Amino acid sequence: MERTYRYRHRQEDLVHFQVVVGETDLDIGVRRERFSPELVKRATQMVRECRAPLEEYIKRDPAFLKAHTPYDVPPGAPPIVREMAEASRLAGVGPMAAVAGAIAERVGRALARFSRDVIVENGGDIYLRSARIRRIGIYAGDSPFSNRLALEVRSQDTPLGICTSSGTVGHSLSFGMADAVVILSPNTALADAVATAAGNLVKDPDQVGQAVDFAAGIPGVTGALIICRDKMAAWGRLKLVPA
Predict the structure, then answer these.
(1) Which of 44, 67, 90, 207 is a Cys-bridge partner for 94, taking CB atoms 3.0 to 4.6 Å apart?
(2) Number of H helices and number of E strands within the chain?
(3) Rounded CA separation 99/113 (Å)
(4) Can you say how many angstroms the Cα of residue 224 is from the centroid of all Cα atoms in its chain?
(5) What residues form DSSP beta bridges with 181?
(6) What is the pLDDT averaged over residues 124-139?
(7) 8 A C-beta contact, residue 229 and residue 179
């Protein structure tokens, strides 16, 4: 089924296609001249290769899947598991809060060998690599800011993770009530985990500033934008423009 929010990050000069493997549902954009059925097959195989070691690890250590707080994994765990565990440790949440960002970045980096411009969206979490300025629209539910703002991202600031969490929109797990929490980081898994953690802190519109301060204090985070009803707070290397 089509995810209606996807038009907010789609780019007119790119060809977008979907890859679905298990719970992973990606919208991928590549340069028009680089698109081919073979690339779709390659992307699908990349997703399977990302998921396989994670699925095998969860079979051996099922508590990893259900943890809502930072979770220690052994040094011999697969790289994607260790990356998720480290991102969630920095953010103070469970490791599965980083899974969408981790997969998006791994697939995006692999595709960058074939296309100079790549955008991979996984449940609202984006890995972006671009040779030109891009605009990413911001949806914030019933907030008056919804669909009125966009992030403008310069090519020199990519590769970049742009991850979104919400307590009022979509299926992502949040213990807060923010309409949109957008976190920027070169580490997409970290951006994903911090978006969840910062969103959990927003129980009231007046707490958007505190949640942004929390995100700003985490090493590796380069920008944060939080919207709750009629309140908005922003920090870092981000440029907001009219949508």
Answers:
(1) 67
(2) 6, 11
(3) 22
(4) 13
(5) 165, 226
(6) 94
(7) yes
Q: How far is the C-alpha of 152 from the C-alpha of 172, rounded, in Å?
A: 24
Tokens linked to 24: 């992973």
| pLDDT band for position 167 (cuts 50, 70, 90) | low
**Any idea which residue has 């977008």 for tokens?**
16
Rg (C-alpha) for the chain, rounded Å, is 17
> What is the predicted pLDDT for the residue at 141?
83
> CA-CA distances (angstroms) from residue 189 to 8, 80, 85, 163, 211?
21, 9, 10, 9, 19
Strand residue runs (E) in 45-204: 118-122, 125-129, 134-137, 149-153, 160-165, 180-185
Q: Tell me what the mean pLDDT of segment 108-131 comes to.
A: 96
Integer CA distances (angstroms), 206 to 93, 105, 173, 176, in order: 22, 33, 21, 13
Closest CA to 206 of 236, 176, 235: 176
